Amino acid sequence: MKLWRPISIIALACVILFSTCLSLPASALTAAEQKKLDELNAQSRELGNKINELQGQVNNLNAKAAELAAQAATIENQIAVLQNQQAKLKAEIELEQAEYEQILQDIDAVQKRIDENSDTIGYVIAQYYYNDSVSTIERLASSENFSTFVDEEVRLSSVSDTLAAIVEENKNLKKELEVKKKNAEMILEDLKEQKAELAATEKQQAELLAQTRSSQADYVSRKNAVDAQKKALLNEQYRVNQEAAKLLNAQITSGDPNKGGYPYSKYCPSGIDSFVDRWGMYVCECVSYAAWKVEQNYGITLRWGGRGNAKQWPANARAAKYPVSTVPKYGAVAIRMSGTYGHAAWVEWTDGVTVKVSQYNWTRGEFSVMTVNKSMFDYYIYFGG
Questions:
Q1: Residue 84, φ and ψ in degrees, nearest 5
Q2: CB–CB of 29/37 below 8 Å?
Q3: Mean of the per-residue pLDDT values of the chain
Q4: Spatial distance between the Cα atoms of 100 and 84, rounded to a whole number of angstroms
Q5: How would you classify residue 280: left for phi > 0, otherwise alpha for psi between -120 and 50, otherwise beta?
Q6: CB of 250 within 8 A of CB of 357?
């Protein structure tokens, strides 16, 4: 933790013996350079405000698209319920239709029995007509014997009683079947009306679903367009920051091939923001790397994920009783406040005017080392002695 002392002594010796050991940025800016730097910082802040505004639009569009997606899912569920109800009604209609057709067949069968009994009815009527026109003495005289006469009389009486019973039975049965038929027709009509209503409701829901999906796609399209504008502004902000660094004679290199020991380096640069690190910050971002360096050097685990943008670190540090200064110091976290999120870097070396920092995401998702005038950064947070 005290490596800064031998490094400072060596640096001082180099200054005494060799005039300079490193080609470092100028210790002070001219008035024109300072004015240009101020303009660049103002431009970066303006771009940051625009990016924040666009991010707000993106958030709103995403929220609306998500809301419509939820509505669409609800409508799809409702359509599924309607389809299930229609399938159930269809089965009920088919069953009721089969029963109705069976009733029609039963009515036909009863009618057939009635028609078949017509012959018997005609015969009995004819017999009774004959008997009414012939006297009992004459019928007895025409019979072979008295026994035959009695048998015929009994038979005609029995047929008459049976016929009456059959006619009454068929009449009642047909009446019952006609009632069943009427009821079946009413049930079928009701079921068909229900099915038609469900089909109409499903059609309306399908139209609403199509409109909702169309609106959702429109919001997603608009969100993508705003995202593209935001990306263009971010690229412009990167360019402005690079120009400011150049003005301050910043020396930017790829630095340590081990990328500062950062545990998520294998995901960078393409995996930037793809998931959250163990400090609650997005991987390959400047704050994720800074949090790693603080833990690596001081054993302090920062839990600032929900308020972890670099611009928020000074306020977070003050709230946590960590010193915040404008004076650079070895082992401090340097904070640049301009831009949408600001920028955080780890101070590797400083002579009080010039600072050498290691960092992530100065160039999109990349690790780099930068030597620059201390005025590049607004604050320095001290986490150790």
A1: -65, -40
A2: yes
A3: 80
A4: 24
A5: left
A6: no
Q: pLDDT-derived band of residue 20, with 50, 70 and 90 as boundaries?
A: very low
Distance CA 260, CA 177 (A): 93
Q: How many CB atoms lie within 10 A of CB 10?
A: 11
Residue 23 clears pLDDT 60, i.e. is over it: no
Q: Which two tokens stand for residue 1?
A: 């933790």
Is the confidence at residue 335, as pLDDT, over 60? yes
Alpha-carbon dihedral sign for residues 51, 57, 60, 65: negative
How many Cβ atoms are within 10 Å of 382's Cβ, its own excluded?
17
Nearest to 281 by CA among 351, 346, 360: 360
Is 249 strand, coil or helix? coil
Tokens read off for 297: 């050097």
Task: Report the distance separating Cα 119 and Cα 106, nearest Å.
Answer: 21
Q: Could you tell me which residues come within 8 angstroms of residue 58 by beta carbon, excluding any fewer than 6 positions away?
A: 223, 226, 227, 230
- For the chain, the maximum distance between any two Cα atoms, rounded to a whole number of angstroms, is 170
**In the structure encoding, which two tokens stand for residue 298, read together?**
């001081």
Q: pLDDT (tens digit, 9 = 90+) per residue, 62-106?
A: 898 899 999 999 999 999 998 898 899 889 888 888 888 888 888
Q: 19: helix, coil or strand?
A: coil
The confidence score (pLDDT) of residue 25 equals 42
Tell me the two tokens of residue 114: 């009635």
Torsion angle of the four alpha carbons 38, 44, 49, 51, in this order, in degrees rounded to the nearest 10: 180
Provide the token pair at 140: 């007895």
Q: What is the DSSP letter of 332?
A: P
Specify whether the CB–CB gap between 58 and 227 falls below 8 A.
yes
Q: What confidence category does residue 146 fall into, taking pLDDT thresholds of 50, 70 and 90?
A: low
Model-level pTM?
A: 0.53
pLDDT (0 to 100) of residue 121: 61
At residue 147 the predicted structure's pLDDT band, cuts being 50, 70 and 90, is low
Check whether 359 has a pLDDT greater than 60.
yes
- The whole-angstrom separation of Cα 349 and Cα 3 is 10
What are the chain's domains?
71-227 (1.10.287), 249-381 (3.90.1720.10)
